[in-house]
């Protein structure tokens, strides 16, 4: 397995947060695709359709060959992670699974308090995850026993899904549904610092939602984080000091380039901001309401996918569309995975596709 990647084959909630219990979906119709001047034609390298929706699989990146596929009992809510020769994945019933990287066989399985909403982080023989009830868990990677748990209250209404914790030195940095970003000592769970990125506003429960469900990103000593109905902010990773913030609402995600932060917001607008100041550089509204994924940096381009199965390549400098392909008849909820000049796309019907440029 010299060249491989773990990909989730479930009808995935990863990268696709939703609000439960608020009636019908009143989201406006997706914007129609507009004409653009094509700058290149992405080349399809391979595609593979999985035959199960509750499974983890290992693929060869060069040809799509499946090394193994391991069916699970429940739907996976967030993508799996690799560490210590294990693949760790959490499901929507609170189950955390450790599978052998070599064979896919179950090494251990434990049940936590609530659905696991974040991809696991693996470090120093520990696994760190978040559950829907706001708890942060540290478990022994050898057997799944609990090292520590930090419980938090959550609002009456929250977005399903959750952001992936960040490992920074000896701290685990976690975004929560109340709009706070918190650093925990990875060994003990002690709170090192906490910063409020957004505060709940308005009288109605839905107006008070300021969840951090988009994965925070780190570059150098700065954490970049965005909330739903709140702010995009830059935070010092060691102290929690807020360096800048600007109003923005996102539940999908962001990407970091050397000088720029890219975000897809809750309405499907793609934004570019200056990393040092938070000043807007450009915004792209042609894909509004198309339920975009988080962006991924690919060379000097951005890649985003949408709910109608399209993948879009955008210019980092201007946001203009450079290329577009229809990959699947099903929606794409998971952010594209970039590896060099290739990008891997997972649609909700289990189709995995590799494109190159």
Characterise the protein shown here.
By secondary structure, the protein is mostly beta strands. It is built from no helices and 31 strands. The protein has strands spanning 4-8, 43-49, 55-60, 66-71, 81-83, 86-90, 95-100, 106-111, 121-123, 126-130, 136-140, 146-150, 166-168, 171-175, 180-185, 191-196, 217-219, 222-226, 230-236, 242-248, 253-256, 260-264, 270-274, 280-284, 296-298, 301-305, 310-315, 321-326, 337-339, 342-346, 351-356. The strands form eight sheets. The chain has a four-stranded antiparallel β-sheet, with no helix packed on it. It has a four-stranded antiparallel β-sheet with strand order 5-6-7-8, with no helix packed on it. The radius of gyration is 19 Å and the shape is globular. The model is unreliable at 1-24 (pLDDT under 50).
Category by helix and strand content: mainly beta
> Strand content of the residues, in percent?
35-45%
* Count of alpha/pi helices: 0
The helical percent reads under 10%
**What is the CA-CA span between the terminal residues?**
24 Å
By DSSP, the count of extended strands is 31
Mean pLDDT over all positions: 89
- Characterize the main sheet: 4 strands, antiparallel
CA-based gyration radius: 19 Å
Shape: globular
Low-pLDDT runs of 5+ residues are 1-24
Strand order of the largest sheet: 2-31-30-29
